[in-house]
Amino acid sequence: MTVISETRLCRVMTMRFNLKLFLGLVIIAVFFTSFSWWGRCGTPQLADSRIYPDRVDDSAQNNYPHDIQAGKPHQQSEDIDCLINDDYVVNCQREGEEVYVPFGFIEKYFEVYGKVSTVNGRDRFDWQHSYSKVYVPKRTYDPRDIFMSFENYNVEIRDRVKCISGIDGVPISTQWGPQGYFYAIQIAQYALSHYSKNMTEKEPTIVKYVDGANVEENIKQWRALDKASSLTVMYDDDRRESVLRFSSSDVVDMTQTGNPTGLALKLEHVNDLIISLQLKFTSNGSISVSVKLRDTNDVYVIRYVQSSTVINMSGNTVLYGIGNRTRWSRLTRDLFTDLQKGLLLNNKFSRKVKLKNVKIISLVMHGNGLLSDVHLSTTSHLAFFFNAAEWLVTNQDDNGGWPIDVKRTLMPGVMELKPGWYSGMAQGQAISTLTRAFWKTRDRKFVDSALKAIRLFHVPSEKGGIVAMFMDKYVWYEEYPTTPSSFVLNGFIYSLLGLYDLKYLCETIQDVCSPAQVQQTLELYGTGMTSLKTLLPLYDTGCGTTYDLRHVTVPGSAPNVARWDYHTTHINQLLMLATVDDSPILKDVATRWTGYMKGKRAKHN
User: Fold this and answer.
1) CA–CA dist 485, 462 (Å, integer)
2) Are 55 and 556 spatial neighbours (Cβ–Cβ below 8 Å)?
3) Which of 132, 207, 260, 433 has its CA 20 to 30 A from that of 46?
4) Over the chain (605 residues), what is each successive 10-residue block's mean pLDDT?
5) 359 and 292 in contact (C-beta within 8 Å)?
6) Helix (H, G, I), strand (E, B), or coil: what is residue 14?
């Protein structure tokens, strides 16, 4: 957040005092008084009986501003300097015995959050100790159902996703390197989010433009943009249906200053921004989709070409390579996401595009080829899910993993991973994806890939695997298998969820797993759960959690405190596990950690 200068604070606090400001300052003062007793993250010097009724004594009652609570007449305010820890001065306001500190200072000092909102015509100051949300499970975790709360994830729009590959249909990451690479964790999360959305959202709206049963009528909607282009109907033996055969120049005028060429289909849709089609090129060719921003009337072209280009932006054209498409294949693209990622490459375009402002104008085919089953839809979650599941099957190596070809540094010179490392979190979330793909299709290749993925759960980190040992006793499946070990909490729990999903599948469907594989998944999951329940207290700071245990494994290192979104991930994971494991520690710890999000602290001595 932008740092508020003392000059600005002075201007704000020296404004004319009025009733509304006074009421706002009273609210802030009450919170500040409480926080000044609690301290940053330590033990409270004075307990607040309204929050901790079990910690109050008579002396504490006398410290509350009874004149405010009783509605005594307001006193004139005046400026006063607040000396903070003998280090620096903040301009405050004094009113009688009360001192009011600017929330702009409190916000940064205590890392809390607040804003003025209007409720029923009145201004109200909303204070939050954290910014993230806990999702309490509504039912027992089912490995065939949604994954965690991933229906709320939108992986593809993250800044650290370069784009969705036109060739593979999965995210290309820039999280740990600007060059762009395939990151199995991100790909699995992309899959699980779309799988979960498919189970929670309503059925998509689908508008068909080409289908085998009505191709004779479909052809009438197309028009040739030049005399050399043609479109005919033919029967295709591979698809066993009638398809459209297009023929046009494969040369596209990128400047759009010359005469247009190709075969065009007018679309004119706003909400249906997923385009899907069956395609087979018989020569060089491309697909161009024109979209318009309705708030500015600017027109952009998203062009899909037969090349290995990842993404490029030239003028008002966004270019995606879709590889060689000389065999029948389905291309499904989210035009809104493809446009957004392209515009991010345009330094002149700085604002975010809103979904409601994007309108599809037309589809234009160039080159020679065959076309079938063209439609627009509001969503296509299963198509995106299976793109990722297929990628995991195709790109799994002989070790059963998905090596990450980028350097990862947790602590410079201490915890570093060279390109080619494996991740326990990647293995776990990939297994969660693959088992769900099996449940949907009953295709053996998905469960075989999931079973292959557990090989790395037997390989120590120092030998290129993912297994670390805490105090030579407790097994840990490392998200980042560094030496010394890092023991990242959320990544470990995701690996356990993957093992649980596979264990459930092996136990539920006979003959899918061998007896030895069933026993293997049971042991890996059981051993991991024992480690989790034993080591959970090490992540508790008394006011939050740590992301990992570097403060334990690296002498002299400070705790790597988890930011609130990771803290809530810890809670969400424990609550989910508690639906399938009745050990009290899971719920008890989750409840205590939830309290930290409301400003509660562990008791002092």
Assistant:
1) 10
2) no
3) 132
4) 39 42 48 45 38 38 43 76 96 94 94 93 94 93 96 94 97 92 98 98 95 92 94 95 94 70 91 94 95 91 96 94 96 96 81 86 96 96 98 98 96 94 98 98 98 98 97 97 97 98 96 95 98 98 97 96 97 98 97 96 92
5) yes
6) coil
AA identity, residue 193:
S
Do the beta carbons of residue 176 and residue 201 sit within 8 Å?
no
CA distance 198 to 394: 23
Rounded Cα gap, residues 138 and 11, in angstroms:
49
CB 115 within 8 A of CB 126: yes
Rounded Cα–Cα distance for residues 388 and 572 (Å)? 24
β-partners of residue 242 are 235
Query: How many residues can be counted in the chain?
Result: 605
Q: Which of 535, 515, 428 is nearest to 473 (CA)?
A: 535
Burial of 150 (0-12, 13-18, 19+ CB in 10 A): buried
The conformation of residue 167, written as its DSSP 8-state character, comes to T
Helices (H) and strands (E) in the chain, counts: 16, 22
| Alpha carbon distance 276, 283 (integer Å) | 21
Beta bridge partners of 255: none
Range 395-432 burial, b when 16+ CB lie within 10 A, else e: ebeeebbbbbebebebeeeebebeeebbbbbbbbbbbb
Secondary structure of 257-307 as H, E, C letters: CCCCCCEEEEEEECCCCEEEEEEEEEEEEEEEEEEEECCCCEEEEEEEECC
The stretches of 454-514 forming alpha helices (DSSP H) are 489-508
Instruction: Please give the span between the terminal C-alpha atoms of the chain, in angstroms, as a whole number.
Output: 35
Residue 536's alpha-carbon distances to 452, 489, 563, in angstroms, are 29, 9, 17
Helix axes 489-508, 424-441, angle to 10 degrees: 30
